[in-house]
Write a structure and sequence with these properties.
globular; 286 residues; single chain; mainly alpha; 0% strand; 12 helices
Length: 286
């Protein structure tokens, strides 16, 4: 069925990276600001996450399909292989972008007014690899909007605490995206594309990724202390930090064969575990 091609196009399973942090932002708002639980708001938040990420991923595949067709690793993707046409992917992007904006209209004015800005960030990321080596950090900014956006959906205003959670997502995402880009180090150089592995080489890029994840671990500690969360949070935080460290043991300068386990499986598990323990801590503590 062709619909399965679209699920593959947008890597729907990778929604697991940012969605748990959106749920943290939602629960953080209703618990710390004494706001009543609303199944409608929660539904809108989840819908926004799905629509925004689907638009971003489809647009990424659309904007990169000429490069993907040249790269042996990506030549089998839906657009280069002919399973989905470029125009269909673009239409898919437009439809989901509109659905995202329309959904924010039902939430509150600030989410609606900021929705084009969010789309600019998450769609614009797809072109950053053409001109800047910090493209990994632009991706981090895109995913980091999840907890802030969910918090705004509930409260309608900004606060420091969800921003701290967003900083965790920002550095965590950038760190694992640098590792993921190791696969295309030589290809990026040959096509004059910008990435940290292409600029610094495999070994130095891995060190930058480790450094970025060390910052993530520090932010996890700072956030827990700032919110004054209980021991449940710290159990989840310890597991999350442990999984960050574990993924770096899977990848060696001379062997990146386990990159998909480090990128997809480990980070997906880390995200869910951190969210479950954090949300539980928030419900018990407040």
């Amino acid at each position: 069925m062709k619909i399965l091609y679209y699920f593959s196009l947008i890597k729907f399973s990778h929604t697991i990276f940012a969605l748990p942090f959106a749920l943290i932002g939602y629960v953080l708002a209703i618990q710390t600001q004494s706001v009543s639980f609303s199944v409608y708001t929660l539904g809108y938040v989840i819908a926004c996450m799905i629509f925004a990420r689907s638009a971003a991923m489809a647009f990424n595949r659309y904007s990169d399909y000429t490069y993907d067709s040249k790269n042996a690793r990506t030549a089998n993707r839906e657009i280069p292989s002919g399973k989905i046409s470029p125009s269909s992917a673009l239409i898919f992007t437009i439809i989901h972008s509109v659905l995202f904006i329309v959904t924010t209209w039902f939430i509150n004015p600030i989410c609606f007014y900021l929705s084009p800005v969010a789309l600019l960030v998450i769609l614009g990321y797809s072109y950053t690899k053409r001109f800047t080596y910090i493209c990994h950090f632009i991706l981090g900014i895109g995913l980091s909007l999840a907890p802030i956006g969910a918090y705004l959906a509930v409260t309608g205003y900004f606060s420091l605490t969800p921003i701290l959670f967003s900083c965790i997502v920002f550095t965590w995402t950038a760190g694992f995206d640098i590792l993921y880009a190791l696969q295309d180090e030589e290809f990026d150089r040959s096509e004059t594309l910008f990435s940290i592995p292409a600029l610094f080489g495999r070994t130095k890029a891995m060190r930058i990724s480790i450094g970025t994840h060390i910052i993530t671990a520090i932010l996890v500690v700072i956030t827990g202390l700032h919110v004054q969360l209980n021991y449940i949070y710290w159990i989840g935080a310890s597991i999350f930090i442990g999984l960050l460290a574990f993924q770096h043991t899977l990848i060696k300068p001379h062997d990146i064969s386990k990159i998909n386990i480090a990128f997809g499986t480990t980070n997906g598990i880390a995200s869910v575990i951190f969210a479950v323990f954090t949300i539980t801590a928030l419900y018990i503590q407040f």
